[in-house]
Design goal:
heterodimer; A: 401 residues; alpha/beta; six-stranded mixed sheet; B: Rossmann fold; 48% helix
Chain lengths: 401, 274
Amino acid sequence: MDHISRRVSAFCRYLRSQGFVIGLKEIEDSLRALSFVDISKREQFQLALKIVLCSSKEEQGLFDEAFQLFFVTTDKSQASVPWLASENPEGDGARGTATETSAEGAAQTGCGNEGMNGSAEADSVSKLGEAEQKAADGEKETAFNWFASRTASQRPKKRHIYISSSQLSKMKKAARKLVRQVQLKQARRLAARKKGRQLDGRRTWRNSLQTGGFPIKPVWKGRDKTNARFVLLCDGSRSMSPYADQFLPFAYALTACTRHVEVFLFATKLKRVTSQLKNGKRGQLPVLTVFENEWGGGTRIGESLFSFIQQYGARMLRKETVVVIVSDGLDTGDMAYLPRAMKEIKQRASAVVWLNPLLKINGYQPEARGMKAALPYIDIFSEAQSPEEFERLARTMTIRR
Amino acid sequence: MTDQPAAAALHLVQALRKPLLIEGPAGVGKTEMAKVLAQSLNTRLIRLQCYEGLDVASALYEWNYAKQMLHIRLMEKEGAALAEKEAAIFSDSFLLSRPLLQALTEERQPPVLLIDEVDRADEEFEAFLLEMLAEFQMTIPELGTIRAKHRPYVILTSNRTRELSDALRRRCLYQWIDYPDFQKEAAILQARLPSINERLAAQIAGMMEELRRMPLHKAPGVAESIDWAEALLLLHYNELSKEAVQETLGCFIKDREDWEAVKEAIESGILIQL
């Protein structure tokens, strides 16, 4: 391998460690792509790699930063670091573990601090020493961590959210209750159903042909029901984080109960975490990885809801959708968005539930600007924290359209 | 009209022979890229419009049942053997080829296959596409495996109404197209409508830039701004005025609340200085 291809494949490995879907095929493709462009021109070089290696808009942003650091920055310290020297697969493996170690380290600190409210301040530089001890190949490790720490400082920090396992079985029970309870559409038409109330004469008769004309197995018919789809939008701002700790296990329980759930977190930006919740390793609770602006910062409820409508509304806001918003309504963003977004959601979904933990406080009045603006569009305004309360909430939810 | 990233992406599609996935907001010219590619290669553009419920029968192939039935009736009197009849019925002439099959069986040169708005199709269909995109072949039980004569250039577009699977993304090159900036939009308008004067093009582009910054439900795309410019030309407006904008608001605002918001912004003079 010549210098460029080594450098490019090191770059690919770094991107892979950042969550890019890059396999051997992609590395090969990127090298092939480079043979078709004029690599003495930086734009062409960068563009070719970008087109091959990225697979979403978000990744393109990360790519540009990484590219800048990897190929462009002419820092003296960079020249002295031999991070491109590694060609042996062992080095590659060791790199992987090093990043994981530092991530775990950061996560543990987070746990110690406030449970789910992962500490983002644990920067990778402080973890560097720890990782180095474990790594066999010290020099390369330093290089890689050095690189990781530089990238980390330039974009929103990652956080890990843990889901507490206590009371999970009770939460699941409450979630099942909710799914059973909220059955929206009841068609007028009668269709064959296992637990129908009426005898389906025609089908019973037809089936009796198999048994020589004796209707041994009756077929029942009843009204067709459709289970609701749930969209959970959870406010993860700093003021909400103790409550979100209670809510996320419920969200997790709900995703385990039914397929038709979508879960989002928002603070100043919206983040879809459905797949992260569903893809927890078998037998283990999922750990959510989010950026700082999606968790634990200030809140822009209106903008977040609005971007939800714009990005996902067409698909997720349907007449069988129940939208559950969990927030204290303390919106620090532009107030023009919230009423419009709420109106839109109300129009397009079947029911809007707003859970506000502040309701627990005696004498609480929804006086916050955000809460006041959203109130007219809410069907159920309540609060729930423990499994019992979620179950009670489920019982009161008899939304039918 | 294409800028450097777009040109590079099309270049790599030809060089690497990998499908290209284009994402971006509605009306920024994603579909146009495929058309441009087909035009520049002087080849056929085959388009598959995706929608919810799209199935193999309408994407790949279907037997022409009516014709088969007629044929059977006509052959009834002939004493041909059963095997012969069967072979006749399941031959190419009874096969209705849908876009994907057309792309594979194109005779002369590799066509451009545009799979439009792939995010609208179901996930199952997406999975089915994977096979086709990876191998460029498919199997019709009655006829056998059909392999592409020329590997088509495949372009997929998506509006991001749903996340596409990683498997599909991995198989594709990726290009994100955003709204054009002021200069580019003015250039597009002038290229598309040669009769437009520079000033009007610049005014339209400037207003579009402002509009896209507003919190609208449906931000106008390039397609809308071209429509609008065309409408203004038809009405013989040589520059924007309050009245001109209000008359032609329907060209680029397609939502009642947006309409009111924009109207208010125009009235109060926030949007443009007229």
